[in-house]
Amino acid sequence: MLVLVALCAGVVLPNLKVETDILALLPTERGDETAEAAVDAFSQRLARKQLFLVGATTAQRARLAAQRFTDVLEKSGAFERVDLNVASRASDQLDLYKAHRAYLLGDRDLEMLRAGNVDLLHREALRAAYTPAGLMRPLSLAEDPLGLAADFILQQVPAMGAAHLDGANLVVTDGERVHILIVAELKGSPFAGSVQEQVIPAIAAATAQARDALGTASADFKLVSSGVVQHADAAARRANAEIQTFGTLETITVLVLLIVVFGALRPLLLGTLAFTLATAAGITLTQFMFGRVHILALVFGSSLIGGVIDYSIHFFADRFRDPDHWTPASAVEHVGSAILLGLTTTLLGYAVLVIVPFPGLRQIAVFCISGLVVGCGTVLCMYPLLTRWRRKPPPFGPYVGRKLDELMQRWRWTRPTIAVCLALTVLIVIGLTRVQIQDDVRALQSSPPELLANERAMAALLKTGVESRFFLVRAASAEELLQREEALSDKLDTLRAAGKLAVYTAVTRNLPSLATQHEAHDLLSKRVYVEGGLLQRFMHELGFTDDAIRQRLAEFARSEPLTPDAWLASPAAESYRSLWLGVVDAQYASVVTLGGVKDVSALQDVAHAMPGVRLIDRVNGVTEVLRSYRRAMSWLLAIIYCVAGCVLATRFGWRDVPLLLLPSVLATGFTLGVFGWFAVPVNLFTLLALWLVLGLGIDYGIFLRHGHTARTTAILSVTLSAVTTLIAFGLLAFSATPFIRSIGLTLLLSITFSWAFVMLSCLTHLRSEGSGL
Amino acid sequence: MRGLGGGSADRRPQTYFLRAFALLLTFLFASATSAASVFDHPATAQQLLEGVLKRPAHELATEPVLRGRFTHRRYIAELTAPLVSTGEFVIARGQGIYWHTLEPFDSEFILTQRGIVQHDEGVQTLKLNAEEQPVVRLVARIFLALLSMDVQSLTSSFQLYGAQNGAAWQVGLRPSAAGVAAVFREAVVSGSSQVDQVTLFDANQDRTEIAFHDFDASHAPLTAAEKHKLGL
């Protein structure tokens, strides 16, 4: 035990990684590990990107504020890169082109040469020489007579929504303000606490200083930002605040309750010991097995309160059976088997979760199983040794138990009560037909309204929605990957022409495959850079000297193909680098991002028809996964009820099984029925909570059945259990995180129902008094 | 016909385009002065509008459409003679430029906020969409502002200079941002009662001179054919 605590405190807690992203709970792409790894790699990069729009009423002020904002962010050291000026990229592209000019061609020029349309190339070159069309070329007429460099570079600058180049900056304007775009990249995962601690204050400081930079016009300033880190930080802050508030309330209430009932501190201290050990075991094992602990596992971990404290309560409440002659050893004899039986059914339920290929559920199951086993072991093995209890227990507990017992004794199943119950059941059945299912992941995870408004403002200004779909391309070699991407690009060009897609961005726009590069080189050397070729004819026509022509031919001969390694090392790759995933699980992978998708099924068709290409739709994928797991969980829940019935039958006989199971089943039905009436949507997390109810409800039944010789004690201990669980979970119903609120609300209702139904089913008699159960 | 009525306080980009062109027309009727001296006289947009450009700015505000002929000369360092082309133009303030080269070959060049379209002997040979091509957008914006002398809009990308010699005046522009410097090194717009000539100096030793002449005095609104050509 000491070793466990030491291990937990010394090794696990300092390295504890609490995950708050709901997506981390889910298997994203079932049955395709490589795709999952590649998608994760891309998502992680994307998650590190942070966009800012610094706005003011004049362009001059906006530039001033944006410059100050950028300076402060850069100095903070919290960011890997902070980009305000993008113009330098054009010169990077120019350098790249100059070094590989014999192999790089714009799409249009390549098409023209493929089609043998040298005349058209000639005509365009003439027009560029004689009309304003030639004014926008980055190289002089002598250096780039045919405009091939200009055409290649023109297609490099990826569109950034409505943002346009203004001087060196990307700018968007609305009716009121000029906004300057700043793109920053975090140093680590936005979910890491250490990153949040650096980034969030840096953004706050930069915002304040940028506003100050405007002096008297500071009211002009407006910042719109978008990125994962602010949402992750808000979620972590909220979770921390809730854990603190709820935890404190919970502790105080349970403390007061236990002292009032048992009149001594020792049950409380021992309960705390058992709970601490159980939690330590849960966290330690989970951290060792998964490398991190999800917030949901921690939330369910507090079900250990419902479990371990229950065992403590059963143990100590047993004293009320016979306050004068009670010994800790006799308590183990009396309640031990009931505790073990309850533990078995609960563990069975969790064991099924271990088998389900759902990382989140596995974590919960591992956490709870290890916690419950350790907790139960503590109660049964250590309590008898540590319990010294001389003072007489206060009468309050037995009094409550007795009163409840009397209430039950007096209960009669008369016609009116049966009628009322039937009417209630009908109402519930109607409610069940009105149950709404909610599988959309976006509805389960929420951010503070001001952050969401920020994201909307960003999307409105940049005029791009958040596009969650993208293509993942994979191949055995870099060259094969690039060729597959080019084949995909051809198909996407067709879709664009048909209006089914607005834009896409692919690495091959900047780094063509070697096959394409060699094709370009062959075409150029046969038709353009050859004695009597287009270059020579055209330059002669304009009046260039032979020297100038020889110079161009020499440059062409010196040029080398662009390899992926050389490309990655050049600053020109900057805009595309996040799309190049490199080697993921022994395969080369890259991403083609999309914008303005109008026809998803057309994209699916493209992906299906091409080897190594997959359309990834993360949001819909997650929603789909949530839906299928919700369905699977519903069936599993039914199966678990059957299995638990079999286990219980071996102990109590078949006749009693319905009485033990019905309360949980009815509680489940009633909870869902109430949700139906009050339009509370049902999701996977509702079902997870119902999973808990199964164990707890059966526990209650077992105890009441077992406690037939000491009814008052049994009633008291079950009631106490229910109340502590309600306190622990009921508070979750007030959480600001929708999926945690779902769990809390479900448990609040279903625990109350199970307790009431258990009392009614085990303690009242259906026909006449004395006929037995 | 919105935007053609001239002079309204509409701040949409289309309109500034028109305003720019009107200003350009004004410049066309000025006499050339020495280009070397103008960069000795830095000026703010405000100073230019209240001083050197006071008259042309007024002219500009009243002329929604300008038509005339141009002579386009491109001086290349490695070539002994300039490349010369001539043709006709229509500048519709706030809407676009129609540039029709007639000699040495027939070619149409249409520049609007939406992008660039080219026709060779009536066949469309190039179309660049400003929405998809940020570079095209930048270039379109600068040239629209330059040809129309939209001084306020030019200040975000240029340092401005102004000089006056009797009725003749010059405005000089130097890019303050690297992205623009890639397009040209400096520009001089000169005129007297109207705009006469625009000279663009490339990053190397090349330069382009565009002289405007034979203005159409009618200033009639855009005809249906012209609107069609501009894609309106």
Number of helices of chain A: 29
The portion of residues assigned to helices of chain A is: 55-70%
Highest-level CATH class of one domain in chain A:
Mainly Alpha
Instruction: Give the mean pLDDT of chain B.
Output: 70
N-to-C SSE string of chain B, H for helix and E for strand: HEHHEEEEEEHHEEHEEEH
**Sheet with most strands of chain B:** 12 strands, antiparallel
Which two protein chains have the largest interface (Cβ within 8 Å of the partner's Cβ), and how many residues from each?
A: A-B, 48 and 55 residues
- Which regions of chain B are unreliable across 5 or more consecutive residues at pLDDT < 50? 1-36
- Note the gap between the termini of chain A: 43 Å
Q: Which features would summarize this protein structure in a list?
A:
heterodimer; A: alpha+beta; Multidrug efflux transporter AcrB transmembrane fold; six-stranded antiparallel beta sheet; five-stranded antiparallel beta sheet; 29 helices; 13 strands; B: 232 residues; alpha+beta; outer membrane lipoprotein receptor (LolB), chain A; globular
How would you describe the overall organization of this protein?
- The complex is a heterodimer of chains A (773) and B (232).
- Chain A is an alpha+beta fold and 773 residues long.
- In chain A, 64% of the residues lie in helices and 9% in strands.
- By secondary structure, chain B is an alpha+beta fold.
- In chain B, 26% of the residues lie in helices and 37% in strands.
- Chain B contains seven helices and twelve strands.
- Chain B has a twelve-stranded antiparallel β-sheet with strand order 1-8-9-10-11-12-2-3-4-5-6-7, sandwiched between helices.
- In chain B, helix 1 (13-28) crosses helix 3 and helix 1 packs across helix 4.
- The radius of gyration of chain B is 17 Å and the shape is globular.
- Mean pLDDT of chain B is 70; it is low at 1-36.
- At the A-B interface, helix 3, helix 4, helix 6 and strand 4 of A face strand 3, strand 5, strand 6, strand 7 and helix 4 of B.
